[in-house]
Amino acid sequence: MSPQKSIPQHRRLYEVLRKHISDGVYKEGDLLPSENELCQLFGMTRPTVRQSLSTLANDGYIRKHQGKGSIVHHLPREIGILSVSGTTSAVGDRNLKTKIIVKPVLMPWPRDFMFQLSELEKESGCIYMERVRLLEDVPIFYDISYIANINLPRITARQFENRSLFRILREHYRIEIKGGDQRIKAIRASTKISRFLNLKKDQPVLHLERKMETNIPGFFLYSSIFCNTEKYSIFGRF
Amino acid sequence: MSPQKSIPQHRRLYEVLRKHISDGVYKEGDLLPSENELCQLFGMTRPTVRQSLSTLANDGYIRKHQGKGSIVHHLPREIGILSVSGTTSAVGDRNLKTKIIVKPVLMPWPRDFMFQLSELEKESGCIYMERVRLLEDVPIFYDISYIANINLPRITARQFENRSLFRILREHYRIEIKGGDQRIKAIRASTKISRFLNLKKDQPVLHLERKMETNIPGFFLYSSIFCNTEKYSIFGRF
DNA sequence: ATATTTTACTTGTAAATACAAGTTAAATGA
DNA sequence: TCATTTAACTTGTATTTACAAGTAAAATAT
Question: Does the pLDDT at position B152 exceed 80?
């Protein structure tokens, strides 16, 4: 078995263009090279190039216009797999910190869990952790994660301080997030939540419940996220 | 010019499958016919069929699995272009009502509008309307819409009571929503909002600010939506 | 009986080709 | 000069062909 799975061509081009947009090589409003130009530049055929562009359009990086070309769309800043938009324009990566509240521990699932669990998940128990994410030293997210304890040796021992949970899962376990469902509510901050998010009690807080699907069938990630949306909003595309 | 624009084949198949899933012909967890079977059934080639399935997967109706097939994903109920999930399973279309608070009127844009406007939009003014949407006679959404007044003759005179705003735009003006951006916040209900949503003042309310893109370049729809998420959640896919 | 291999499916990737339809700017006409 | 037409782009749709890779069940060997 090859150590590095071969990457499809359309994926390769996707990553290149994605990076160029992120890095500002192509700025908002810019026209990307035409499909035929990309074919020449990268030695691919048009269907392959079109697949890359289609994925980019889907992910919101570009908008395609028949007869015109592919135009770079504005790019939101992302925290984890959430995007935020705030009043201050400088939401750079530098200003983002993660604080571990509860280190990953193995425990049984909570009774009345927010999503329905399979029998296999129930039996296995879950890895539980709590984190707070700060933007410019202001706590924005209080994130409670639940991961089914299926084939994840030594995960509780790993360091989560500076790495993204998803990067660890990808790099060490080859687990990729493919999509998911979420429920969004506005609630009052409980005493616990208000403490972590540095808010007064009963202030309105955004509550997200997420079930994330992975490339492994039957293996899901769950999180319950509380957001302080006083200064920043959750940003999304549809 | 033809009165009915010709519909691409991949779109036709998309609509058929989408309807079958919505109608329960294919239920959650079911395997869709294989790509080759669909080719035969609908007289298309595989790339065409694949484009339909790809769009369905993107919209969250199915999940594709290499070697297995396309599996029907569970389907949230939709209100307008938002999805809700509640404690009661029966969120049928019958239980959904729309109440007009302010009939469409032409007026200038509010100062400090939530999104940045182009010069053309500013000059044209906007069509303003307010609606409340009720689910099982409980007010769930208080929706304030802004539409740039560009080439929309007689729109203020039309009936919005029982029709979707988007259906009117599609059928009478050939305007389709292609996507958009949104910001989500949790706020306290103001007096006005609490009245329309039948809540106590200062209760937490979900606030969505949306900018919707259409098939017409430079023409956007805006809405500011306040949601009572006590009983129902906003449901989304990513 | 059990474990392994094979086989027949499924979707994924990729090429080469053709024409349709929308956009823009240059060429042409009055 | 100005309006119109044309031409040269762009992306959209669709066919055909070929093989790779993942899945599951049937066939085979132990």
Answer: no
From residue A139, alpha-carbon distances to A188, B58, B128, B133 in Å are 17, 33, 37, 34
Give helix then strand counts, H and E, for chain B.
Answer: 6, 11
Q: How far apart are the C-alpha atoms of A212 and A68, rounded to whole Å?
A: 36
Chain A residues within 8 Å of chain B (Cβ atoms): 47, 54, 58, 60, 63, 65, 81, 85, 179-188, 204-207, 209, 213, 217, 227, 229, 233-238
User: CATH no. for residue B13?
Assistant: 1.10.10.10
Looking up tokens 């028949």, which residue turns up?
A: A66
Domain end: A47, A72, A97, which one?
A72
Residue A230 domain-assigned? Answer: yes
Angstrom distance (rounded) from CA A206 to CA A228: 7
The gap between B90 CA and D16 C1' (Å) is: 47
- What residues of A are in contact with residue B180 (Cβ under 8 Å)? 237-238
Q: What is the complex's ipTM, to 2 decimals?
A: 0.87
In angstroms, rounded to a whole number, what is the distance separating the alpha carbons of residues B70 and B73?
9
Picking from B17, B41, B72, the residue at the C-terminal end of a domain is: B72
Is the pLDDT assigned to residue A85 strictly greater than 90? no
Whether the pLDDT of residue B164 is over 60: the answer is yes
Beta-carbon contacts of residue B114 (< 8 Å; ≥ 6 apart): B183, B209, B222, B224
Q: Using a CB-CB distance cutoff of 8 angstroms, which residues of chain A are in contact with residue B183? A: 85, 233-236
Are B136 and B155 part of one and the same domain?
yes
Burial of residue B58 (CB within 10 Å: 0-12, 13-18, 19+) is middle
Residue A89 reports pLDDT greater than 90: no
